[in-house]
Amino acid sequence: MSGFSISQITTVTQSFADDLDAYRAAGADGIGVWEMKVGDDSLERFRASGLESAAAIPAVPSILPLPLMQGPADPAERVEAICAGIRCLAPFEPACVLFLTGPGDDRGTIVEGLRAIGDEGRRSGVRVVLEPIQRAFAHHWTVVSSLAEAAELLDEAGADIGLMYDSWHLWREPLEEIERYRERIHGVHLADWREPTRNTDDRVLPGDGVVKFGPILDALRWDGLFDLEIFSDSELPDSLWKEDPRELARRGIEQLRRTVSSASA
């Protein structure tokens, strides 16, 4: 049975405790935990909340450095940080822990990192997944921009790693590709595409953009948590990150539920 959750970046200005309160008040079933928000009492608070744990994100989220985020320059340090993040997030029992390749030409280092991350996921009892990033902004984040490219890279590495589907990145993906890789997908992020999109952090709530979710959700046949993930550059005049976080959570769950319900009607 599908449920609805909110990834903590959506309410980026709030604390972990405030996120739990806001998401429960909004009627969410789950939370997408971000390691950067985890504190000493977060696990205890999470367990008391009754929420499920959707896709989780480590504080250092990529093998190669990211131009738009701070973090170690050395890929080996980054891989160890991802592995430490997996260990930190494992007690929340997330549906998966996602990460990115980062941009660059060093495929050998990426493959080596994938193997280490896959091994850590297996040791920690956590499914880890690689997220493809859509092509327009791939130079900031990744070397893979489709499910097929991500799957090919994982197969090359022989790593025990699944795939993440994010509608904002992959809404143009051919439906037959979603169907082809459906069994390897272990997490789903939903957000809508603003037209025109102004930068890499300019998402809108489902139903407020141009994505036709019905065919996508039919192809996915997803029965886990539909996780709302909103990046919204606070320098933009109509940034969702400048809205009241509790109201954004309420409206986000409402539109998420409406989008999924209408798609399955």
Can you walk me through this structure?
It is a single chain. The chain has 265 residues and is an alpha/beta fold. 40% of the residues lie in helices and 14% in strands. The protein is built from 10 helices and 11 strands. It has helices at 16-26, 42-49, 75-89, 107-124, 138-141, 147-157, 167-170, 175-181, 213-220, 245-264; strands spanning 3-7, 30-32, 52-53, 55-56, 96-99, 128-130, 162-166, 185-190, 192-193, 203-204, 225-228. The strands form 2 sheets. It has a 9-stranded parallel β-sheet with strand order 3-2-1-11-8-7-6-5-4. Strands 9-10 form a two-stranded antiparallel ribbon. Strand 4 (55-56), helix 3 and strand 5 form a beta-alpha-beta unit. The longest helix has 20 residues, at 245-264. 47% of the residues are buried. The mean pLDDT is 97.
Give a short synopsis of this structure:
With 265 residues, this protein is of the alpha/beta class.
Keywords:
globular; two-stranded antiparallel sheet; alpha/beta; 11 strands; 265 residues; 9-stranded parallel sheet; 40% helix
Please specify the SSE layout and strand pairing:
Elements: E1 3-7, H1 16-26, E2 30-32, H2 42-49, E3 52-53, E4 55-56, H3 75-89, E5 96-99, H4 107-124, E6 128-130, H5 138-141, H6 147-157, E7 162-166, H7 167-170, H8 175-181, E8 185-190, E9 192-193, E10 203-204, H9 213-220, E11 225-228, H10 245-264
Parallel strand pairs: 1-2, 1-11, 2-3, 4-5, 5-6, 6-7, 7-8, 8-11
Antiparallel strand pairs: 9-10
